[in-house]
Design brief:
By secondary structure, the chain is mostly helical. The chain has helices at about 15-35, 50-70, 75-80, 80-95, 115-135, 145-160, 165-170, 175-180, 185-205, 205-225, 230-245, 250-275, 275-305, 305-315, 330-340, 350-355, 365-400, 405-430, 445-465, and strands at about 1-5, 10, 100, 105-110, 115. It has a three-stranded antiparallel beta sheet with strand order 3-4-5, with helices on one face. The chain has a two-stranded antiparallel sheet with strand order 1-2.
Length: about 475
């Protein structure tokens, strides 16, 4: 598709991304139609149902896309800060004037249509980070630049958490991918990974188990640089087996002491043989805070969280403790719908679970269930392939840009799509907690569709100007 450049010459947008965008939007509307279909009387132009609304949003999105493709790319660089400021004001305004839906004050309503500022805040945050990181004076090896970068997405995260909408807030952490690409030390990412791992393990098991696991992992790490490491590894494996076999309530303290003594002995031997005291010290600096975090997590779960919040976590990590007709209902029906599709699916408009509205939010957060039931494994894999192809293509486009601003923006968009995709599909399959994140371009929702159209439209515009310096 030719577009007009700033100099008046005609350039071509990337037809692969454009085609993937059109395909996902079209498939999304078909799946929304299937999820909301009530019979021959169903009208695609009825704005009182999601089918008609989404069709209207698609029309608006295409108009927005055509407009974006003819806007000078410098506009987005020059007005990144004002755009970011407007979205922050919108996030503040929605807390005051917004309409509360299902416990979250996240939407402005205009008649029968709604607008969610958090969706557009993703775009503005991506834009401002791209501009800031492209500045020659920005060095992510400097604390000041790192703090400012983190502040740019921490501000919308805090405002969104006040709504409260934890799902939308989590998505903003995808920008860490962009920061890492631009030179952020991997240490904060590693620390973040350890924190999340300890948090999940603490909820899955208990503090004493997590501490023993960390001790065993520390021992394995230390002995890899020692002689006769095969014998060391066998000894640690035997200790691990003993810890599992003797994990009764009365022996926990003894097992903890034995593992602690073993770790101290290996640390001393490692220091004595290798003279690397800093390595042993680093192990302690990771182990002790992790143990405290694990203890705090278990305390918070049992003493601070409300019963319904505990249920959400148990649905994810301990489904055996949940009532299949209660909080576990969504996940059970979601997996049942996807699994019932088999290899080729039941056929378009023939999904029985979809038709009878067994799956909640089936046109929004659980749209992938409709795909799985009606189009089966083949249809589901096709959707996954289209998303992965889109993300990979965006990363390819990012690496061919000459301007850092363009490259940064492409990485930001790729990260947002990746996190949305992984979390949405993961929660419909029961692999991740249900936190209410739509599947981009497929799920029903005007704000999400317009926001991602805006992101991809600006990306296409930037790529059409990749020859500029």
């Amino acid at each position: 598709m030719p577009v007009q450049s700033a100099s008046g010459s005609r350039t071509t947008i990337d037809w692969i991304i454009f085609s993937l965008y059109l395909s996902l939007v079209f498939i999304g509307w078909l799946m929304i139609f299937a999820a909301e279909y009530k019979g021959p009387e169903t009208s695609i132009f009825d704005l009182s149902n999601p089918i008609g609304k989404q069709l209207l949003f698609i029309g608006i999105a295409f108009a927005v896309l055509l407009l974006i493709l003819n806007i000078d790319w410098k506009f987005w660089r020059n007005f990144a800060y004002p755009i970011y400021g407007v979205t922050l004001l919108a996030l503040v305004a929605v807390l005051i004037f917004g309409t509360e839906v299902k416990g979250a004050r996240s939407w402005f309503f205009v008649g029968n249509l709604s607008l969610q500022p958090a969706e557009f805040a993703k775009f503005s945050t991506c834009l401002i980070l791209s501009v800031f990181l492209a500045n020659p004076n920005t060095k992510l090896t400097q604390t000041r630049s790192v703090l400012i970068s983190l502040g740019f997405f921490a501000a919308p995260v805090l405002l969104i958490l006040l709504q409260p909408d934890a799902g939308s807030a989590i998505v903003f952490f995808s920008f860490l991918i962009l920061l890492y690409r631009e030179g952020l030390s991997p240490i904060p990412l590693i620390i973040g990974f350890v924190v999340v791992a300890v948090f999940v393990l603490s909820l899955l098991f208990n503090t004493w188990t997590v501490v023993i696991i960390l001790m065993l992992l520390s021992m394995i790490f230390l002995v890899q640089s020692l002689e006769y490491r095969m014998y060391w590894n066998i000894s640690i494996a035997l200790l691990a087996i003993a810890s599992v076999a003797l994990s009764g309530e009365g022996l926990r303290l003894i097992l903890l002491i034995v593992n602690a003594l073993a770790l101290v002995a290996i640390m001393f031997f490692h220091w004595y043989k290798k003279g690397k005291f800093n390595t042993a010290l680093s192990i302690l600096l990771i182990l002790i805070p992790s143990a405290l975090l694990s203890l705090g997590t278990e305390f918070a779960f049992h003493r601070i969280l409300e019963p319904h919040q505990q249920e959400r976590i148990n649905v994810w990590l301990h489904p055996d403790k949940c009532d299949p007709h209660g909080p576990l209902y969504n996940v059970v029906l979601s997996k049942m719908a996807i699994g019932s599709g088999g290899l080729t699916g039941k056929g378009y408009l023939k999904g029985s679970l979809t038709k009878l509205n067994y799956v909640p939010e089936q046109s929004t957060d659980f749209i992938f269930c409709t795909v799985g039931e009606e189009q089966g494994f083949i249809g589901s894999i096709t959707i996954l392939g289209l998303f992965l192809f889109l993300i990979i293509r965006i990363l390819q486009i990012a690496e061919r840009q000459r301007l850092r601003f363009f490259r940064n923006y492409a990485y930001g968009v790729a990260g947002l799509l990746l996190i949305h995709f992984v979390i949405n599909v993961g929660m419909t399959l029961g692999l991740l907690p249900i936190i209410g994140i739509p599947l981009p371009l497929l799920s029903y929702g005007g704000s999400s569709l317009l926001a991602f159209t805006l992101m991809l439209g600006v990306l296409l515009r930037f790529d059409s100007q990749r020859s500029v310096n």
